[in-house]
Prior knowledge:
NAD-dep_sirtuin_deacylases, binds ligand BV8, SIR2/SIRT2 'Small Domain', 2 domains, Rossmann fold, 9 strands, six-stranded parallel beta sheet, three-stranded antiparallel beta sheet, Sirtuin_cat_small_dom_sf, alpha/beta
Amino acid sequence: MEKIVILTGAGISAESGLGTFRDEGGLWAQHAIEDVATPEGFARDPDLVHRFYNARRAQAAEATPNPAHLALARLAREHPGEVTLITQNVDDLHHRAGSPQVLQMHGTLMGALCAACDHRWPAPLVMQPADRCPACAAPATRPDVVWFGEIPYGAEVIDPALNGADLFVSIGTSGQVYPAAAYAQHCRRLGARTVELNLEPSENARDFDEAHYGPASKIVPEFVE
Ligand code: BV8
């Protein structure tokens, strides 16, 4: 029973038409990180931040899973209990591809969170600063995503999975955001084999025993076969 941990980033959704962060013309090129992906940015201009996420939520709703998402869903279904899928992505393409378990460590575009009472509910397509929380009625609703400086979700599941991994596969991430960018090195130190599937070498390419470069929709199904 080989324990496989898979980490995905924006690159796996690129061929589904969703923008990545750090590629040419990527999401961050249009906005400063501080303005749209930090609590301070949200406090400063909640309308800008809601518009940034509303646009991405609409784009994600229009997108469809690509062969890379589908291959990972097939792998998990064919190896029940052996695959832990962790994604940095906030789109729902892994869910819609049929992955039985998806751990969204940076939250989800499809979720709303009340900053006043921590209530969570399915996000409407368009969120606005004046929206009131359905539980406490405070006008404190925000996208349920993890911004810089906030603690990622799921460590209670992620950490044991990383510690028990025989194989760690990183797909479509530039390896620049922590703690996700440290996972490969952590698993390797504990004796796991580490593999990178990406368009080009990532910032932490040295942490991998094996690498395959090319578009995810091609190299992920090939790797999974
Ligand atoms: C935390 C929100 C404390 C949702 C995101 C100094 C040093 C080290 C660390 C830090 C530091 N200063 C601050 C930190 C911590 C900070 C951090 O890492 N900063 C970086 C910038 C240095 N991290 C945090 O603040 C995190 N929280 O540390 O809390 C803590 C932690 C643990 C325990 C206790 C306390 C919170 C980080 C989360 C931030 N939120 N997003 C959203 O808007 O989506 S980050 C954002 O970047 C997204 O989540 C995204 O997923 C993530 C990573 O980006 P990638 O997915 O890698 O996307 P990118 O565009 O970069 O790369 C795409 C890749 O795909 C490229 O390599 C490209 O070649 C490839 N590609 C493109 N097309 C294809 C392809 N591959 C295959 N096929 C293709 N077709």
